[in-house]
């Protein structure tokens, strides 16, 4: 089980996340929603160990991950928000680099890379440099890098950005399958429909604080509306229709 | 005041109006992208800012001019007993050096910003959807390129155009001498700068016009490397060429065609009525040369623009020229014998690919390689000059110094290259996966450096000396170069705690100049004094034992320094942060 206990992160004196507590159970897919600046990325970075919390701890199987970060990371698969990859490496070489750093045996690694590249439709361009890849192709490379060592914890930060329809569908099914396999999945996204479809539980953040946390079904049932409307109701006091009309007015103005 | 202010205001108002017109806005965009990032990838360029770049470019000319005060100062001349000297004759080699310096710096800038000079895919995606014709984009880029050529020429030579004539005319009482000398010198160096810029631009345009885009991308780095080697050679030979020019026959020899820098010196001499027939003939090449180069640059640029920029939308993003790289036996043994941990294997893979694939790193390595070749060939020539036989030449300090020169440049050069970051935003993968406390960076860096140095010693130096001097001398020589390379590697890697290329650029520290001076001194000890001693010692090989205490000291000091560092100082870093004078404890958090 992965557990966040009273996580707080301050940049200088400004709080980015305050007293965030939640747990990630095996077999559950926890979605994380929130507008820009709500603390999603900070939370993800603390969960991966890239950022140390100012206060509170992240525990994996009851132990603070900072005690043995390397061991925790060897059981973690992470897809970051932006696909920053080394453009002069080929897709194959990048995956080989990641696998080697993870200490995977050469034969097993090559076999896995080959199979996953085929399944993600990247096999034909495996020896082209990443610099020439489209956004979706880069995203698929990141996904392969995150799953190829069969981790126990998955942290996905906007994993669908740039993916084509087929790849996105495959990925959504993959996330559900991982949940069924008893893996721990933390899924951060802006796309409410995907969270609604893929996640079993949801966490809604606003200005670094949890404002709602429950199963997707419960949240909808309590407020009697869809996740999209619930999100808007909880997070933004904005009349979206009015804003859209105002934009058109400004557009038309001389 | 009001009368005076109104025309100024009017001009300012007009300028403000015109500078925001689409065409000039576009020109400004193209000029700015040359100084800030650019290129096709998403890489974060080293952004120094326009002001700092221009200051750095102007510095060499200013410094060299000031250093020459010593040569032209009247008091010093009087103390040396050199009275009634002809300043124009004295200034010839220095003027040639300034011409070469301006060509080298301008050419290097053009090579460095090669990718940013020409509009690329990013420009296409941003500019073409806007309501402006392709011709407007073409003309705006052309104007920007011409503006840059003039700006860089003026900037690189600004200091030397004022300071150098002042230094030369220091002994002269007439202001006219200074004014005339300065005007001719300025013309010479400015034209040389423009020529160098246009020459690089023409080579770039020619390649774009003739080669398919993918081939151009592949070959581009090698051509840039060759240009850098040429420029370094030009600079390194600048001390020898003036004396050759003084002894020219009536017709200019063929080699002067390969050195356009000599044409501009000849032009300066002609304008001062100091040129002989050969120099006059060479001076006659300058203006036609520049005219032909300009016309050629414009033509190839237009063709290249048509072939590459206009058709960007038709070109596929993903490369189709894919070469599967098979895992060789070599890498298998490398993994088994040398790279023992996952960190070392993964790190080596990354460092190796970066060294030979990242354009910026390849460029620096090519420059270092070029410098090494020039110095090594000079040493080889010096070895053969006084020697009577091949055997005698091989045992001379100059010949023995060749592997020392090359190994020094590789070790120090690679160490410097390790500091240049590549795609910093992508280093999250290493931050996520590596154990910062494991202290494996130094062993990895050592292995990379030694793999680049040692094979050459055993593949080239050892067989050559076995052939000339037999096994004993060859083995001793190879052993000494190997030992010195290993010791130098240890020295340059003291307190090294980064995975190469993944950390931000080091900050300028107060001791950076000391490090630079130490490098120069180190080169003298390593590549000059050691071969001198070795040449003497190899006559009686037992004398080589004298080097053992030196080696022990050189081995002990880095080891001692490494041990004296605290655990925190050994942790791997991804960011070079300034040392804080006061540390906030943030006890309230």
The CATH homologous superfamily of the domain at 2-75 and 151-252 in chain A:
P-loop containing nucleotide triphosphate hydrolases
What is the total domain count of chain B?
A: 2
Mean pLDDT of chain A: 86
Structural class of chain B: mainly alpha
Terminal CA distance of chain A = 58 Å
Number of strands of chain B: 0
Predict the CATH topology of the domain at 2-75 and 151-252 in chain A.
Rossmann fold
Question: Rg of chain B to the nearest angstrom?
Answer: 28 Å
Oligomer: heterodimer
Unreliable segments of chain A (pLDDT under 50, ≥5 consecutive)? none
Annotation field: number of helices of chain A = 10
Quick recap of the structure?
The complex is a heterodimer of chains A (254) and B (589). Chain A is of the alpha/beta class and 254 residues long.
Write up this protein.
The complex is a heterodimer of chains A (254) and B (589). In chain A, helix 3 packs across helix 4 and helix 3 (91-101) runs parallel beside helix 5 (135-147). Chain A has helices spanning 40-48, 69-73, 91-101, 106-119, 135-147, 165-180, 192-198, 216-223, 227-235, 240-252, and strands at 2-11, 14-24, 29-33, 55-60, 63-64, 76-79, 153-157, 184-188, 201-206, 209-215. Chain A is an alpha/beta fold. In chain A, strand 4 and strand 5 (63-64) form a beta hairpin. Chain A has ten helices and ten strands. A six-stranded mixed beta sheet of chain A has the order 6-7-8-3-9-10, with helices on both faces. Chain A has a domain at 2-75 and 151-252: P-loop containing nucleotide triphosphate hydrolases (Rossmann fold, 3-Layer(aba) Sandwich). Chain B has 589 residues and is mainly α. Chain B has two domains: 2-314, no CATH class; 346-570, no CATH class. Helix content of chain B is 73%, strand content 0%. The relative contact order of chain B is 0.07. The model of chain B is unreliable at 39-45 (pLDDT under 50). Chain A binds chain B through residues 10, 48-50, 54-55, 69-70, 73, 76, 78, 80, 82, 84-90, 93, 96-98, 100-103, 106, 110, 125-129, 131-134, 137, 145, and chain B through 40-43, 317-320, 322-325, 327, 335, 342-343, 345-347, 349-350, 353-354, 357-358, 422-423, 425-426, 428-435, 589.
């Amino acid at each position: 089980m992965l557990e966040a206990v009273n996580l707080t992160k301050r940049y200088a004196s400004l709080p980015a996340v305050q007293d965030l507590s939640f747990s990630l159970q095996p077999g559950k897919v926890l979605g994380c929603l929130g507008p820009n600046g709500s603390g999603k990325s900070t939370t993800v970075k603390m969960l991966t160990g890239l950022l140390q919390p100012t206060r509170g701890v992240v525990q994996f199987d009851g132990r603070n991950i900072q005690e043995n970060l390397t061991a925790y990371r060897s059981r973690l698969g992470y897809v970051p928000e932006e696909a920053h990859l080394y453009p002069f490496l080929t897709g194959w070489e990048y995956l080989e680099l990641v696998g080697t750093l993870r200490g995977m045996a050469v034969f097993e690694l090559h076999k896995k890379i080959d199979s996953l590249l085929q399944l993600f439709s990247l096999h034909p361009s495996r020896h082209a440099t990443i610099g020439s890849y489209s956004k979706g192709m880069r995203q698929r490379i990141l996904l392969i890098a995150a799953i190829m060592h069969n981790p126990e914890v998955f942290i996905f930060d906007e994993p669908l950005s740039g993916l084509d329809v087929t790849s996105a569908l495959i990925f959504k099914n993959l996330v559900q399958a991982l949940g069924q396999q008893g893996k721990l999945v933390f899924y951060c996204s802006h796309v409410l429909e995907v969270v609604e479809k893929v996640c079993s539980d949801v966490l809604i953040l606003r200005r670094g604080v949890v404002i709602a946390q429950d199963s997707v079904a419960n949240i909808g049932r309590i407020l009697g509306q869809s996740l999209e409307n619930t999100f808007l109701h909880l997070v933004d006091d904005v009349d979206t229709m009015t804003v859209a009309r105002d934009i058109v007015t400004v557009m038309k103005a001389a | 005041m009001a009368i005076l202010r109104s025309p100024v205001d009017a001009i300012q108002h007009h300028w403000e109006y015109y500078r925001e017109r689409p065409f000039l806005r576009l020109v400004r965009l193209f000029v700015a992208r040359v100084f800030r990032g650019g290129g096709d990838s998403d890489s974060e360029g080293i952004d120094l800012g326009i002001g700092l770049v221009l200051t750095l470019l102007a510095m060499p000319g200013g410094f060299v001019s000031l250093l020459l005060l010593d040569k032209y100062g009247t008091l010093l001349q009087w103390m040396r007993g050199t009275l009634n000297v002809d300043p124009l004759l004295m200034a010839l080699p220095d003027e040639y050096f300034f011409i070469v310096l301006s060509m080298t710096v301008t050419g290097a800038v053009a090579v460095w910003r090669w990718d940013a000079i020409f509009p690329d895919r990013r420009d296409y995606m941003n500019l073409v959807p806007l309501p402006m014709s392709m011709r407007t984009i073409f003309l705006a880029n052309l104007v920007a390129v011409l503006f840059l050529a003039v700006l860089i020429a003026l900037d690189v030579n600004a200091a030397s155009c004022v300071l150098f004539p002042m230094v030369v005319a220091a002994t002269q009482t007439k202001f006219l001498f200074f004014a005339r000398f300065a005007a001719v010198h300025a013309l010479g160096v400015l034209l040389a700068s423009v020529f160098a810029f246009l020459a690089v631009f023409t080579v770039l345009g020619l390649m774009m016009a003739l080669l398919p885009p993918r081939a151009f991308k592949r070959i581009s780095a090698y051509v840039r490397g060759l240009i850098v080697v040429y420029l370094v050679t030009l600079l390194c030979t600048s001390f020898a060429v003036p004396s050759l020019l003084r002894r020219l026959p009536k017709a200019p020899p063929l080699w002067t065609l390969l050195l356009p820098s000599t044409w501009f010196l000849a032009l300066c001499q002609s304008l001062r009525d100091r040129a002989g027939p050969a120099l006059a003939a060479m001076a006659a090449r300058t203006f036609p040369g520049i005219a032909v180069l300009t016309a050629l640059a414009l033509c190839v640029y237009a063709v290249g623009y048509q072939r590459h920029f206009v058709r960007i939308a038709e070109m596929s993003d993903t490369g189709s020229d894919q070469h599967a790289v098979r895992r060789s036996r070599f890498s298998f043994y490398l993994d088994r014998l040398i790279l023992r941990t996952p960190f070392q294997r993964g790190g080596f893979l990354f460092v190796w690919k970066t060294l030979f694939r990242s354009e910026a790193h390849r460029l620096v390595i090519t420059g270092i390689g070029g410098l090494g070749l020039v110095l090594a060939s000079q040493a080889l020539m010096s070895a053969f000059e006084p020697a009577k036989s091949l055997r005698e030449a091989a045992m001379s300090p100059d010949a023995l110094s060749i592997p020392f020169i090359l190994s020094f440049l590789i070790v120090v050069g690679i160490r410097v290259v390790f500091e240049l970051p590549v795609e910093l935003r992508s280093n999250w993968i290493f931050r996520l996966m590596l154990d910062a406390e494991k202290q494996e960076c130094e062993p990895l860096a050592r292995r990379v450096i030694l793999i680049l140095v040692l094979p050459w010693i055993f593949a080239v130096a050892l067989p050559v000396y076995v052939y000339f001097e037999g096994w004993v001398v060859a083995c001793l020589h190879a052993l000494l170069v190997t030992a010195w390379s290993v010791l130098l590697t240890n020295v340059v890697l003291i307190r090294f705690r980064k995975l190469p290329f993944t950390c931000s650029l080091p900050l300028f520290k107060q001791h950076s100049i000391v490090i630079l001076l130490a490098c120069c001194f180190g080169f003298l000890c390593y590549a000059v004094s050691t071969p001198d001693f070795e040449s003497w010692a190899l006559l009686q090989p037992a004398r080589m034992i004298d080097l053992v205490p030196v080696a022990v000291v050189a081995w002990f000091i880095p080891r001692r320094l490494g041990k004296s560092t605290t655990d925190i100082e050994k942790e791997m870093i991804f960011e070079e942060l300034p040392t804080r004078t006061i540390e906030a404890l943030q006890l309230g958090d």
